[in-house]
Design a protein that fits this description.
Blueprint: H1 3-10, H2 14-21, H3 29-41, H4 48-55, E1 60-66, H5 71-74, H6 76-91, E2 95-101, H7 103-116, E3 121-124, H8 133-140, E4 144-147, E5 159-160, H9 164-177, E6 183-187, H10 193-208, E7 218-220, H11 225-236, E8 244-247, H12 250-262
Parallel strand pairs: 1-2, 1-3, 3-4, 4-5, 6-7, 6-8
Helix pairs in contact: 1-2, 2-3, 7-8, 9-10, 11-12
Length: 266
């Protein structure tokens, strides 16, 4: 069903239906509700190109993933994030523009998106503590929100994140309360802000219980199953191996579990 057919069904003008769907204040709430319900009932989907021409918006949100953060793509949490974002975008008539680019092309990709008006905003993934993308996107005038935080960036910016530090502190304290005093940390690459916060939480948990830090129990790198496996092997080969391990992702945890199973620990 197109806009004209929906308008005929409702006995309203196309202009009124369009304005109701786009939330224009001059359309009464009762009419907006009636139009939205009819659109849902008839599975009406607006023509994205026509809407873009009418509103001057691209009706698309960009997600640019550099290949150096390929762990993002294989991480089930990332897949859930993208699926959830896509669902919300679709509900509001937006598309998702997902680009996987080389690190060298990332900045140019953002410039191209801004210059060509292909997206109305950007979601920045896997921020570093001093992430340069924040200043660049501000200079480009491209609206953005950061999925995570960049703790060394002073400029104000919008972000959404979990409390990585507190989560890892609580996890560490939980294991200590179970009787563990040698706890391994298998972390993501610590040039990423989330990994730094998780490391800090782990260290805070040890400090809160008066347990000295052993740097040889701490490993960090790309969050892959292979790294989880090799780090767990190294921890088990330690002269004084840990009795518990905290990992920074499910993918790392799969590798850790496989290593433990190979050694007959599980």
């Amino acid at each position: 069903m197109n806009l004209k057919e929906l308008a005929l069904t409702l006995g309203l003008s196309q202009t009124t239906v369009s304005r109701a769907l786009n939330g224009y204040p001059e359309v009464s709430e009762a009419t907006r509700r009636r139009v939205r319900e009819a659109a849902q009932r008839h599975a009406y989907q607006p023509n994205t190109r026509a809407k873009a021409l009418a509103t001057g918006r691209a009706m698309s949100i960009g997600h640019v993933i550099p290949v150096s953060t390929r762990h993002e793509i294989v991480n089930p949490v990332f897949a859930d994030f993208i699926a959830g974002a896509s669902e919300v975008y679709s509900r509001h008539g937006y598309d998702i523009a997902l680009s996987v680019v080389s690190d060298a092309e990332e900045a140019e990709t953002y410039r191209g998106l801004a210059a060509k008006g292909r997206v109305d905003g950007i979601v920045v993934h896997a921020p570093r503590a001093d992430d340069p993308r924040i200043d660049m996107l501000r200079e480009l005038g491209l609206p953005f929100v950061v999925h995570g935080r960049a703790s060394q960036v002073d400029a104000a910016y919008s972000w959404l994140d979990v409390n990585n530090r507190r989560a890892f502190q609580r996890a560490t304290e939980f294991l200590i309360d179970l009787g563990h005093d040698r706890i391994g940390l298998v972390n993501g690459h610590e040039h990423f802000d989330f990994a730094l916060r998780r490391r800090d939480g782990y260290l805070a948990g040890l400090a809160a219980r008066g347990i000295p830090v052993d740097p040889s129990l701490m490993h960090s790198d790309e969050m892959t199953e292979a790294n989880g496996f090799s780090f767990a092997q190294a921890l088990m080969d330690h002269p004084a191996p840990p009795t518990a391990i905290i990992t920074s992702s499910m993918i790392l945890a799969i590798g850790v579990r496989r290593a433990l199973a190979d050694r007959g620990v599980l």
